[in-house]
Design brief:
The complex is a heterodimer of chains A (293) and B (677). With 293 residues, chain A is α+β, with helices and mostly antiparallel strands. Chain A has twelve helices and 14 strands. Chain A has three domains: 47 residues, Uridine Diphospho-n-acetylenolpyruvylglucosamine Reductase, domain 2, CATH 3.30.43.10; 115 residues, Uridine Diphospho-n-acetylenolpyruvylglucosamine Reductase, domain 3 (2-Layer Sandwich), CATH 3.30.465.10; 109 residues, CO dehydrogenase flavoprotein, C-terminal domain (Enolase-like, domain 1). In chain A, the strands form four sheets. Chain A has a five-stranded antiparallel beta sheet with strand order 4-5-10-6-7. Chain B has 677 residues and is an alpha+beta fold. Chain B folds into three domains: 185 residues, Aldehyde Oxidoreductase, domain 3, CATH 3.90.1170.50; 291 residues, Aldehyde oxidase/xanthine dehydrogenase, molybdopterin binding domain (Aldehyde Oxidoreductase, domain 4, 2-Layer Sandwich); 109 residues, Aldehyde Oxidoreductase, domain 4, CATH 3.30.365.10. Helices cover 28% and strands 25% of the residues of chain B. A seven-stranded mixed beta sheet of chain B has the order 3-5-1-12-9-10-11. In chain B, α7 packs parallel to α8 and α9 packs antiparallel against α10. The longest helix of chain B is centred in the C-terminal third of the chain and has 24 residues. The radius of gyration of chain B is 25 Å and the shape is globular. Classes of the chains: A alpha+beta (293), B alpha+beta (677). Chains A and B meet through α12 of A and α2 of B. The structure holds flavin-adenine dinucleotide. The site of flavin-adenine dinucleotide (FAD) has 31 residues of chain A, from β2, α2, α6, α7 and β10.
């Protein structure tokens, strides 16, 4: 563990952290759980004059559920999210993803904000948030704003947040009525990043047809992806019908994976098809049980 | 008082002292600047310690080595050219590792990148990498005799590839070098202090009496830590130059780039047979991807593989061409099995192909071609009657019943251990304790367990009276090394030989041997127990698998039936087998050191290199043949057996379940779902 030298700053409050971000701008990097940032720093793939460790900011560590609305503080760890009974019972898609991130050691340290803000196309939570049409609340010393998950990812390791902004919380609201969501990840070995991952969320109407749908994809392009094409194909179709095949085709068209250690491009697109079918079926099963995602 | 721990207990309780735990006053930390290009002309190097000052090359020592100095042998630093991504071009030194890594930026190297040669096929086509060679062929030999069978009813041909695999011990390479007066002392993570000494003395032109090598606790080796590396020479030179101790411990990323990996071999096989399934002859070509430099395993592995290409079968005619080629990759090294797994993979894949062609049971094809007498094949492979062994193994596997499920594969092989030239041992008795030094150095296997057992049995004393000492060239004048499935066998024989010499001495002096005479007197006996000829043994594996719709292979069971001679300690034998079997699984399923066409390493971490984790563990059924070798303590070779047999059996199981012919390791899910091949 031999990164290049840096100044270590450890603010105790959000306000202090935002002040430091404003002061140092581009020269500073937020350190949350460190599970993505530290590996890059120790190999000296990246370095920053200032590292702002936000892990002391307790006010950003919470899971709040009000009716069908879930708000997650950015410094909540992925293990805390995984272990939350409310999340497991009522937002199973989040549990699907959290219990599949790396291993318990990484999940104990890694945070929701870090997982969502690293901009790694292989991270599992972004696709889930995209499918759930979550809103990301950003804050800087000069104000607050919110962006939708689908608009947050700009390029590999690049998000819409400016260097002065911090992701402070994530809001998810699921519609009334029958709603189902699931995340399916295919990996080669326990603890691995995915070969591909698919998140699907939708409402079911009285006739068993899909209403508004959300589709997020992991490891299938330079960023976490939203597949608007797959969403469109699913809407109005039956969960076991032609619409799913069309959605697979659309998701493939929206994807652009590269060949690497995890598999060839063709294999990833093949996996996408298989797990998408499984994912839609899983979500549809859950939708039968009213009110859970 | 602190409880006395055996060396094995020390390691599992985190009380080992590895190279990185060693801190000497005034110690410098070394960081190595490496070529980012697989192939480049170097126009200039400045800064740090570089090839303008430290010239010369690595005198290759250790397993499968020879020495020569030319353009094609590895220089200590690349000076005019770089021939693999990761080749050292300079080194920098500082009081701590952070500063040493900062200093890497102070080295300036001007490169002119060239198009690298990145595969065996490319090497055979491309113009030579080196101006002093006519082609990219590093070595060429033939084994067996040329033959023609004009009217063979069946001629089967196929081509196989075992891709390169990193050795990946948990502790990577490392050393601390310290120079005082005319003496150079090196603490190192190694399989052989004597092989390291030979390399340091030879490459740096030092007097043997001025060099002392001491083994630190060693966290795995698998072949990696027997030989000499440029980084060792750089650290030793720097310690003498700066008159300060120098430490170097490689990072995992450096390990992936610059530690010599294993496998990387292609096999082209042509089998002649009759319609009853009897093999009439074998023609083969083995092509080893030797990497950038000659003189090591890469150069010699092809001939060793060719030797074993006939497997445990009565093949009367065989002719095998053994080639090694240059490419712009790190030179090949020995990795657990070191040529044995490749040969077994090639011949066993052909035996399965023959069975399929004739719609026979693969076990029947093997039995039909097995021997009832000791046999020496035309390529030179000697082994015991294989038919009774295979019959017994199939029984132990419950093969006839279990293979009916259709998901099992079998594989048989001859294990050729590194018997020659034998091994050294010294036993010194003083202060009522028996101190033992062995030529080959344990690197995590727990050799102390069998050493204590043998010494305790010979002397009739408690194991508490026995101290197994670490490798130290000042304490033991000569030695070979721990590799090639040899240490329990030849090291054990040396231990027994020295113990018996001491007993003889006691009998002569006191009229009879008693443990009391032993412990109340002083003795100091050293022997190089020489071994000649060969002492091979047979082994067999069965494996069964499931494969899901995405091409993921789940290994359910692995059966082993091995002839290890007398098992000196059954728990150690079992753990050797399980560890080796997991490496065999890794090679077959996921492990690979891969490069892009531009020569850049794609597998930079231990995770990317595909090492398996605990979740992949199958159920093991381990059985041993009832056997006793010609050595005084009855042992035969073991360590490499599972890495040889498991890939054969597993490849067949995957072939059965997927219905797709398996020709390469690792077996990619792409192939299993029908996307390639
Ligand atoms: C071995 C290993 C395996 C892994 N496997 C997986 C996996 O399978 N799936 C998966 O999803 N992840 C995986 N990860 C990544 C892991 O989940 C990380 O925890 C996560 O990507 C980053 O979270 P963190 O809190 O550790 O962030 P850090 O590493 O501290 O930061 C990551 C990046 O996010 C920025 N950042 C952090 N918090 C905020 C914030 N609140 N606002 C704005 N920017 C912020 C940082 O500045 C930095 O750029 C793995 C990690 C390891 C080490």
């Amino acid at each position: 563990m031999t990164p290049a030298s840096f100044d270590y700053l450890s603010p105790a409050s959000l306000e202090e952290a935002l002040g430091l971000l404003k002061e140092h701008g581009d020269d500073a990097k937020i350190l949350a759980g460190g599970q993505s940032l530290i590996p890059l720093m120790k190999l000296r793939f990246t370095s920053f004059p200032y590292v702002i460790d936000v892990s002391r900011i307790k006010e950003l560590k919470y899971i709040r559920k009000e009716g069908r609305k879930l708000t997650i503080g950015a410094l909540t760890t992925t293990a805390e999210l995984e272990e939350s009974g409310e999340v497991r019972d009522e937002f199973q898609i989040i549990h699907d993803a959290c219990s599949n991130i790396a291993d318990p050691l990484v999940r104990n340290m890694g945070t929701v904000g870090g997982n969502l803000s690293h901009g790694d196309p292989g991270n599992d939570l972004p696709a889930v948030m995209i499918a759930l049409k979550a809103r990301f609340n950003l804050q800087s010393a000069s104000g607050k704003r919110s962006v939708s998950a689908g608009d947050y990812y700009k390029d590999t390791f690049t998000t819409d947040a400016s260097p002065e902004e911090m992701l402070v919380s994530v809001e998810i609201e699921i519609p009334d009525g029958r709603f189902g969501a699931a995340y399916v990840k295919h990996k080669r070995r326990a603890g691995d990043f995915s070969v591909a991952g698919v998140a699907v969320a939708f409402s079911l109407d009285g006739s068993g047809r899909l209403g508004s749908a959300g589709v997020g994809l992991t490891s299938l392009g330079p960023t976490p992806l939203r597949s608007a094409g797959a969403e469109k194909a699913l809407e109005g179709s039956k969960p076991d019908g032609e619409g799913v095949k069309k959605a697979v085709e659309a998701a493939r068209a929206d994807s652009n994976p590269s060949s690497d250690f995890y598999g060839s491009r063709e294999y990833k697109l093949f996996v996408l098809g298989k797990i998408m079918e499984k994912c839609v079926a899983e979500a549809a099963g859950r939708a039968q049980k009213e009110g859970s995602a | 008082m602190e409880e006395e721990l055996t060396s094995t207990e020390k390691l599992v309780r985190g009380k080992g002292v590895y190279v990185d735990d060693i801190r000497l006053p005034g110690m410098l930390h070394m960081a190595v600047v490496r070529s980012p290009y697989a192939r480049a002309r170097i126009l200039s190097v400045s800064g740090g310690l570089n090839g303008n000052e430290l010239k010369g090359g690595v005198e290759s020592v250790g397993e499968g080595a020879a020495a020569a100095a030319s353009e094609t042998t590895e220089p200590i630093f690349g000076l005019k050219s770089a021939n693999y991504a990761g080749q050292p071009v300079a080194a920098v030194f500082a009081d701590d590792l952070y500063s040493a890594q900062d200093l890497m930026d102070s080295v300036d190297v001007e490169y002119e990148p060239l198009k690298p040669v990145m595969s065996i096929d490319e090497a055979l086509r491309a113009p030579p990498i080196y101006s002093s060679t006519k082609s990219n062929i590093m070595s060429e030999k033939w084994r067996g005799e040329e033959f023609e069978i004009a009217d063979a009813p069946l001629v089967l041909e196929d081509e196989f590839l075992n891709r390169r695999v990193a050795t990946n011990p948990i502790e990577p390479r490392g050393l601390v070098a310290s120079s005082e007066g005319s003496r150079l002392t090196i603490w190192i993570s190694t399989q052989s202090v004597h092989s390291i000494k030979e390399g340091i003395v030879g490459s740096l032109n030092l007097k043997p009496e001025n060099v002392r090598i001491i083994q630190a606790d060693t966290g795995g080796g698998f072949g990696l830590k027997g030989g000499m590396y440029t980084e060792y020479l750089i650290a030793a030179y720097a310690a003498m130059k700066y008159k300060r101790p120098v430490k170097w411990v490689e990072t995992r990323r450096e390990h992936m780039m610059a530690s010599r990996p294993g496998r990387g071999v292609k096999g082209k096989m042509k089998l002649f047979a009759d319609r009853s399934g009897r093999v009439l002859g074998l023609k083969g070509e083995v092509i080893v991807e030797g990497g950038a430099f000659s003189g090591g395993m890469g150069e010699f592995a092809s001939n060793f593989i060719a030797l074993q290409c006939t497997g445990p079968y009565l093949i009367q005619k065989a002719h095998v061409r053994a080639l090694s080629v240059y490419t712009n990759k790190v030179p090949l090294g020995p990795y657990r099995g070191a040529g044995r797994p490749e040969a077994a993979f090639f011949i066993e894949r052909m035996m399965d192909k023959l069975a399929d062609e004739l719609k026979m049971d693969p076990a029947d094809v093997r039995l039909l071609n097995a021997t009832t007498e000791p046999f020496k094949s035309p390529t030179g492979l000697e082994f015991d009657p294989s038919r009774p062994f295979i019959e017994k193994a199939l029984n132990e596997f419950n093969y006839r019943k279990r293979v009916a499920n259709g998901n099992a594969g079998i594989g048989f092989f001859v294990l050729v251990p590194a018997l020659q030239p034998g091994e050294t041992c010294r036993i010194a008795v003083r202060g009522k304790k028996v101190n033992v030094w062995l030529g080959g150095n344990s690197h995590g296997q727990g050799h102390d367990i069998f050493i204590k057992k043998l010494v305790s049995d010979e002397f009739g004393i408690g194991e508490d009276d026995i101290i197994v000492e670490r490798g130290d060239t000042d304490q033991l004048e000569d030695g070979v090394g721990a590799w090639g499935s040899r240490t329990a066998m030849v090291g054990g024989a040396a231990v027994v030989s020295v113990a018996r010499k001491i007993k003889d001495q006691i009998e002569k002096e006191f009229g009879e041997y008693t443990p009391e005479h032993l412990l109340s007197n002083e003795f100091d006996v050293y022997t190089f127990e020489r071994q000649k000829g060969s002492l091979t043994s047979l082994g067999g594996n069965m494996a069964s698998v499931d494969i899901d719709a995405l091409g993921t292979v789940n290994v359910k069971e692995i059966d082993c039936y091995y002839d290890v001679g007398r098992a000196l300690n059954i728990d150690m034998v079992r753990s050797q087998i399980i560890g080796g079997a997991i490496q065999g699984m890794g090679q077959t399923l996921t492990e690979e050191i891969a490069y892009g066409p531009d020569g850049q390493l794609l597998t930079g971490s231990i995770s990317d290199a595909g090492v398996l984790n605990a979740e992949s563990l199958p159920r093991f059924n381990i059985k041993l043949a009832d056997s006793y070798s010609r050595l005084p303590h009855g042992a035969k070779g073991l360590g490499e057996a599972p890495t040889i047999g498991v890939p054969c059996a597993l490849a067949r199981a995957i072939e059965k379940v997927s219905g797709r012919r398996i020709r390469e390791t690792p077996v990619k899910p792409e192939l299993l779902v029908g996307l390639e091949g």
